[in-house]
Write a structure and sequence with these properties.
5 helices, 35% helix
Length: 137
């Protein structure tokens, strides 16, 4: 499996910031779906799609997922925040949703958000037990 060397029996969550953008629609939904269905990710991987728009997961799916497999939808949740850096507690629902899972954060956002998002990840969203990784696009 793709993450066989870094994943143990611990749960894994993949968090995508910028879920409503072009990169998510064109690349991330199809790629993550293919990895999940192809057995390259742990079968119980949880996906948290995050954006600034107020949407339901179903609305995000209709707009962004294209031909992605429904298994991805069943394991996905959409959360939103305004990216108000003076109120970092608006990111706490992500941490609460993840529980003790190892975490991979994918920043599919404009580069000017990389620094502030990495600060939020470091101070509010890191996993104290498993691993935490950040991928920048």
């Amino acid at each position: 499996a793709l993450l066989q060397d870094t994943c143990t029996q611990e749960p894994l969550s993949i968090i995508i910031f910028g879920a409503t953008g072009d990169l998510a629609r064109k690349k991330l939904f199809p790629a993550l779906s293919a990895l999940l269905v192809g057995g390259q990710l742990p079968a119980d991987t949880k996906f948290i799609w995050h954006g600034r728009e107020v949407l339901t997961m179903e609305a995000l799916w209709r707009r962004q997922a294209g031909s992605a497999d429904l298994q991805l939808l069943r394991q996905s949740r959409y959360l939103h925040a305004t990216y108000d850096w003076s109120a970092p507690e608006e990111f706490d629902p992500i941490h609460q949703e993840l529980g003790p899972a190892s975490r991979i954060f994918f920043l599919a956002t404009p580069p000017f958000l990389f620094g502030p998002l990495c600060h939020i990840i470091n101070t509010r969203l890191r996993n104290p037990v498993g691993f935490t990784r950040v991928m920048l696009e």
